[in-house]
Design goal:
Layout (H helix, E strand, L loop, with lengths): L9 E11 L2 E14 L3 E6 L2 E6 L3 E6 L8 H14 L4 E5 L2 E5 L20 H14 L5 E6 L3 H9 L3 E2 L3 E7 L16 E4 L4 H11 L5 H7 L4 E8 L2 E11 L4 E9 L8 H16 L3 E7 L3 H9 L3 E10 L4
Parallel strand pairs: 14-15
Antiparallel strand pairs: 1-2, 1-5, 2-3, 3-4, 6-7, 8-16, 9-16, 10-15, 10-16, 11-12, 12-13, 13-14
C-alpha cells in the first residue's frame, strides 16, 4: 500500500467502480500522487485532479521512476519550447518565467513554473496573480507534469480551472524511418524565413486573430522557418519550425492543412520538410505540443515516430 513518502511520485490505482452479477468492476487511474489521507487518495492525472476514496481502492502502487523523464530533462525541454515561442513581455520570479503576448495563445500568456521561484510556493502564486493583474490579463500557469505537481496542488486549493491536457511529444531525428515517396502530384513545400500575409491569415483563423504581439512570438527566434504549400495559387497547408535549446531541439508548431486539402498527406510533407531543415542545422531531436483530445493529430504524429515525453496543463485563475 502507499505511504506518505510516495507523495509526488507517479502511481497507478486500481479502484472498484461498481458491481455486476456479484463481481466488482475495476478501473485504473495513472497520475502523480498529490495527497494521501486516511480517507482519500488524490492524483494529478492527464485529465485533471482525481480524488479516490480509500474504500474504493483495490490496489495501488508506485510506478518505477525509469518510466518517466528526469526532472532535468523536463526543464530543458520546457525551456527550449519557451525559447521557440517567445512572448514579447516577460518577467522573472526567481527561475520561473512570466509571459504575456496580448492574450494570444496560452503558452505565450502563462507563467512557466520550472526551477526555484525564490520564495515559498503560496507567495509565488500570489506574485503570479499580481503580475498578470498588473498587465490586465487573467493569471495562467502552465504546469508540466510530473515536475509541477506541487504547483498544481496549490492551484487546486485556490480553485484554479484546468484546460485540456497537452502532450509534449518528441522523437530522435536519427530514429525516424525514411520518408515515403508519397504522391507525385502533390505540390511542393516551400520554406521561408518570414511568414507571408497568407501564412499569417491561416494562423489567425486557427488561433483567433492577430494582435501586434503575434509577429514577435512567431519570428523572434534566431533559427526559424515557415512552411507553405500552394495548390492552384491558394495556400492550403502551413507549418513552422524553430531550432532552440542550444541547437538540439527542432520545434514544430502551427502545422495546419485547410479542410479542402486534408487526407492527402500534406501535413506529413510539411513536417518532413521542416525536419530536413532542422537536421541540416544540427538539431538532433524534434518536439511538438498537441492536445490529448486531438486524436487525428496524435495519430499522425505517432505514425511519424513521436512519443509522449511529458504532459502539461494550462491552469486558469478563477474570476475575481
Amino acid at each position: 500500500m502507499l505511504r506518505q513518502q510516495d507523495v509526488g511520485h507517479r502511481i497507478v490505482v486500481r479502484r472498484i467502480v461498481g458491481i455486476r452479477e456479484g463481481r466488482p468492476l475495476f478501473s485504473d487511474a495513472l497520475g502523480e500522487l498529490v495527497e494521501l489521507s486516511e480517507t482519500h487518495i488524490t492524483l494529478a492525472t492527464r485529465q485533471g485532479r482525481l480524488q479516490v476514496p480509500v474504500t474504493e481502492v483495490h490496489r495501488a502502487k508506485r510506478v518505477p521512476a525509469a518510466r518517466r523523464p528526469t526532472a532535468a530533462a523536463v526543464v530543458a525541454l520546457e525551456l527550449a519550447a519557451d525559447e521557440a515561442w517567445p512572448a514579447p513581455v516577460r518577467g522573472r520570479l526567481g527561475d520561473w518565467r512570466l509571459r504575456s503576448a496580448a492574450g494570444w495563445t496560452g503558452r505565450a500568456n502563462s507563467a512557466l513554473p520550472v526551477g526555484d521561484p525564490d520564495r515559498p510556493l503560496p507567495a509565488a502564486v500570489d506574485a503570479v496573480e499580481r503580475w498578470y493583474a498588473d498587465h490586465g490579463q487573467p493569471a495562467m500557469v502552465n504546469t508540466p507534469l510530473p515536475l509541477a505537481t506541487p504547483v498544481g496542488a496549490e492551484l487546486d486549493a485556490r480553485g484554479w480551472a484546468a484546460r485540456p491536457p497537452v502532450l509534449v511529444q518528441t522523437v530522435a531525428l536519427a530514429a525516424l524511418p525514411p520518408a515515403a515517396s508519397g504522391r507525385a502530384d502533390l505540390p511542393p513545400v516551400e520554406l521561408t524565413a518570414a511568414p507571408s500575409d497568407a501564412w499569417l491569415a491561416v494562423a489567425a483563423g486557427r488561433k483567433g486573430g492577430l494582435p501586434d504581439a503575434v509577429r514577435h512570438v512567431l519570428t523572434a527566434v534566431d533559427q526559424v522557418r515557415f512552411a507553405e504549400v500552394y495548390a492552384g495559387g491558394t495556400l492550403v497547408a502551413v507549418g513552422r519550425g524553430t531550432v532552440t535549446g542550444q541547437g538540439r531541439w527542432l520545434g514544430l508548431t502551427l502545422i495546419e492543412v485547410l479542410p479542402e486539402a486534408r487526407r492527402q498527406g500534406l501535413a506529413s510533407r510539411v513536417i518532413r520538410s521542416l525536419i530536413d531543415w532542422g537536421a541540416a542545422t544540427g538539431a538532433t531531436h524534434a518536439f511538438l505540443q498537441v492536445e490529448q483530445r486531438n486524436t487525428p493529430a496524435v495519430a499522425l504524429y505517432q505514425g511519424l515516430g513521436f512519443t509522449t515525453h511529458h504532459t502539461y496543463l494550462t491552469r486558469v485563475a478563477p474570476p475575481t
